[in-house]
Amino acid sequence: EAQVTQNPRYLITVTGKKLTVTCSQNMNHEYMSWYRQDPGLGLRQIYYSMNVEVTDKGDVPEGYKVSRKEKRNFPLILESPSPNQTSLYFCASSQSSLLGKTQYFGPGTRLLVL
Amino acid sequence: AQKITQTQPGMFVQEKEAVTLDCTYDTSDPSYGLFWYKQPSSGEMIFLIYQGSYDQQNATEGRYSLNFQKARKSANLVISASQLGDSAMYFCAMREGWNNDMRFGAGTRLTVKP
Questions:
Q1: In chain A, whose CA is at the least distance from the CA of B91?
Q2: Mean pLDDT of chain A
């Protein structure tokens, strides 16, 4: 089954404790992206990757890191989480070059930073 | 500047009636794509419908149709014969040119009344 998986689905942590949210897709998509969703703001892009070893900042990259060492994986790293990073996070992937292709979303990760 | 605007934070509709969710967008790129997603209370993002800027006809997918008015830069989602299961958040999104970034509106929460 074609899918994007994220782990963990739910996470409660404390300020300053490094964490990683994993994202994996099995569709051989070149493009992968991370979003955060906050009430009244819709989804905002954090980082994206056009292909292996190619990453770039989105609209709200502060406090986050990513890496793309393999095509299928795109982990999101919070080196020192803060309460303002409490949010719902989505990973998404798509084929790179076709405008009409939608992005496929993972199930989301709900993060609470105390 | 806001690229996607959804002016209705919340909408109510009676079961079996039609409802229109508004979306306006801003772009100077002649090539773009418009998407609608549904997010039920469980949190996942479900792709509903796509409209390309060069498409001659309005997109339709089952009970969903997109009222695309290019000159007005609007891409309203029409849901016909509303069902209780249509109660959810709905997001309008846009991709421009060959840019893989997807910009989202703030969303509209639709409630279908029995």
A1: A42
A2: 93
